Amino acid sequence: MDVDYRLAFDLAPVGLVLSRNRVIVDCNRHVCEMFGASRELLVGASFQVMYPSAVEFERTGSRIEPILNRSGTYADDRIMKRANGETFWCHVTGRTLNPSTPHEAGIWSFEDLSSRRPVKAELTAREREVAAHLMCGLTSKEIGRALTISHRTVEIYRARLMRKYKASNTGDLVHRLLAGA
């Protein structure tokens, strides 16, 4: 049986993107539906169109580059942005085709987590980053190293998140972030 790889790519049950230097070379229907954008709008565009801010786009690229250099793969949960400006939690997994130049070419999958984890509070870019790391179970020191900020700065952002989510402690905050409360 011959496999139509183009059809398989286009109809995959997860969002798939082929990239070159952080520009979308191709994407499937699921990505278009998830981000509320046409294929024509996405193909040829920078991944930046999928991020809530240019700062988050730049920080994420810098953060994942050494990991892609080391292992060739990367995965995390992060807040992304639809074409209409709505933000949503998304699980992103990627593989570079050349670990020595990780952004040169890659394949990325996107899974919309909004039905399980809605975005409820208005968060800053840094709060979103700290929240994503907290949900992975990282300590303030580990988050500080990952984001190249001090652990005390992380604690300030965690305190802001606790106020915004009306959480009594970090465990409660993580529960509320995961539940979208």
Quick structural gist:
The protein is an alpha+beta fold. It has eight helices and five strands; from the N terminus they run αββαααβββαααα.
CATH superfamily of the largest domain: PAS domain
Average pLDDT = 89
Radius of gyration: 17 Å
What quaternary form is this?
A: single chain
Structural class per helix/strand content?
Answer: alpha+beta
**Domain module count:** 2
> Based on DSSP secondary structure assignment, what is the total number of beta strands?
5
Topology pattern, helix = H, strand = E: HEEHHHEEEHHHH
Number of helices: 8
CATH architecture designation of the largest domain: 2-Layer Sandwich
Q: In CATH terms, what is the fold-level topology of the largest domain?
A: Beta-Lactamase
Report strand order across the widest sheet. Answer: 2-1-5-4-3
Strand content: 15-25%
The rough form would be described as globular
CATH domain class name of the largest domain: Alpha Beta
List low-pLDDT spans.
Answer: none
The proportion of residues forming helix, as a percent range, comes to: 40-55%
Main sheet makeup: 5 strands, antiparallel
The rounded distance between the terminal residues' Cα atoms is: 48 Å
